[in-house]
C-alpha cells in the first residue's frame, strides 16, 4: 500500500503542468477590422500590454523575449483573466492600435 502511495505521488509530481502561452499584441485592425493585422512597429504596446495582462493572470513573462515577441505563460485556469486584462488595454498615444490576445 505504501509503495502504491509513493508511485501515485511521484506520478503526480512528474505529470506535465499544462499552461497557456499568450501575448497581448498591439495591432492595427486596418480600419474595417478585416485584417491582416499589423503590429505596432516599436513593440512597445505588445510588450507593455503582455506584461500587464500577464500580471493579471498571475503568469510569468519569458525574459528572453522582447517587444513584439514578448510571451506570457500562465495556468489554463487563468485564461479568462488574461483575456479580460488584454481586452481592457488602451493606449492614448496609439489610437489606431487595439489589443489582441493571441498564442505565441
Automatic annotation (TrEMBL):
According to the UniProt entry, where is the signal peptide?
1-19
Listed A to Z, the keywords are: Signal
Keyword Signal found: yes
Q: Does the keyword Signal apply?
A: yes
Name-wise, this protein is Secreted protein
Organism in which the protein naturally occurs = Phytophthora megakarya
Instruction: Kindly list the organism's lineage.
Output: Eukaryota, Sar, Stramenopiles, Oomycota, Peronosporomycetes
